Every structure is written in structure tokens, then in C-alpha cells.
Amino acid sequence: MKFKICHVTTYRYDEPVTDSVNEIRLAPRTNYRQSCYHHSVAIEPNAPLLTYEDGFGNRIHAFTVNNSHRELVIRSESTVVTHDNDGVRKRVLTPEEDWATLADDAVQNKYAEYLIPTPYTEANDDVAAFAASCGRPGAGVYEQTMELVSRIYEEFEYRPNATRIGTTPAELLEGRAGVCQDFAHLMIAACRLSGIPARYASGYHFIGDLQTRAADFEQASHAWVEAYIPGTGWLGFDPTNNNRVDGRYIKLGHGRDYLDIVPVKGIYRGTPNQRLFVDVDVQLIDK
């Protein structure tokens, strides 16, 4: 599938501000399941861009606006072709081989950063109990991961504004409602407690009509989970929609949790009173 994505972030300030220093992670990755053919970033007021990669391989654009301004606009446009091949498991191991592979020191060391708790994936006894309840006797790693996807989808309500940016998995368990970011963090915490390396992925999910290629609803960024499945590697799972990641998903980047891949972050000098507007448009231009 071929997509055109336009992501516009606008900050408006009550008074003029200066010395705005920012970094953005809005460049789609090119990997085995998608190819980014075009990506551009435009800043208003105009500012030169510095480009580099972080430790996770995510493309970062950094810029500074020193002059006084009351509005900052960041426009990111991309053309991406996705390949619906993330559902293919290269080699299916027995459950015993699965768990033995994850317990191996080489795997533990290689994926250590995706096995330890982070600020947004910290687990308490309730999270540990939830993770344990998703384990079925004789299940392999893939089956247990899919059980987590189903349980989160069935037991938690998708409700915008029910949580905040820093909501923890324990708080989500208590409130039983949240958004894709919260569900991803809970699943990551549960995976790591079970010894499954898991990471936070961000991007877009096209859920419009594949026939008309239309999406007549408000669109937004999306978050899901990538888990390491022995015999195959990293696979994507979406607990918000009870899906495996397929050609409808366009990935921007991944990290240990949301803090590693915040789409736009920065600091500036001036009034704390600001308003944020985000407009996302994902168009399917070729199936």
C-alpha cells in the first residue's frame, strides 16, 4: 500500500517567545515492511535543520528559532509504501524452545534495554498479577503475546482524556480506561515481566475505506508494541485494535517507552501560556 502523510504541529503563544530549541521524530523508517520514498520538513519561522539518528535508529531533525515569534509551525510530509509481510513467522519453535531462547544469556544481554522497567512501564504487584493471568500452560511466546493483546482490548475502554501523558500501567489497571499509549505501556510492562523483550512503536494506522481510499474522520498518531518472537524476530502487535501490525501501519520509530520517541519536544524562552494544535492526514493513494 502507498500512503501520503501530512503531519502539522502548531504552537501558538500568548506573547512573543524566543530561543526555541526543538527536536522532532516524524520521519518514517525504511525497513523490511515499509519504504519511505519521500520525506520533507518545513518550519515556520524558517530555520535550518540538523539531521541525525538516535541510539534506536530513529531519524531526528533538530532546529532552533532564535528570533521572536508567536507561532511555531512544523509541517512533515511523507510518501511511504508498506508491505503486508509482518504477519509471517519465519520459524515456529516449540514452547519449550521459545522460552529457552529468551532465557539464554546472549538474548538477555542483546535485548536488555527492552527487558528492564522504564519510567512509563514500571510495574507493581497488580501489573505482575495481570501479566501472570495472561499466561496459559503450554503456550509459546507468540501465543502469550497474542493473549495479552486480546485481554487488553477486551478489558479496557478506549477513552480519550481519561489519562495523562505519564499514566503508569498500575494507574491504567485501576481506571480501566485510556488511549493507545497507555495500552502499549501496559502490554510492554507485562511482556517484560514474562521475559519477553518488548518496545514501544509510534506511527500511523490507516483505518479508512480501502475501496474509496477515504478516511472521513479525525486522524491522529498511533502507538503499538513490538515484541521479540524467537525464530522470527520483532513483530508488531496492536492492543488498541486487537490486531497484528499489517500494511495499514506506517512506523515512525521505536524506543523503550514513549519518552524515547516523543514526536515533537523542545524548550523556549518566554510565556508558559501556549496552545498546541496537531493535524494528521493519512491518505491511501495506491493499494
UniProtKB/TrEMBL annotation:
<dbReference type="Pfam" id="PF01841">
    <property type="entry name" value="Transglut_core"/>
</dbReference>
<dbReference type="Pfam" id="PF08379">
    <property type="entry name" value="Bact_transglu_N"/>
</dbReference>
<protein>
    <submittedName>
        <fullName>Transglutaminase family protein</fullName>
    </submittedName>
</protein>
<dbReference type="InterPro" id="IPR013589">
    <property type="entry name" value="Bac_transglu_N"/>
</dbReference>
<feature type="domain" description="Transglutaminase-like">
    <location>
        <begin position="172"/>
        <end position="241"/>
    </location>
</feature>
<dbReference type="InterPro" id="IPR002931">
    <property type="entry name" value="Transglutaminase-like"/>
</dbReference>
<dbReference type="InterPro" id="IPR038765">
    <property type="entry name" value="Papain-like_cys_pep_sf"/>
</dbReference>
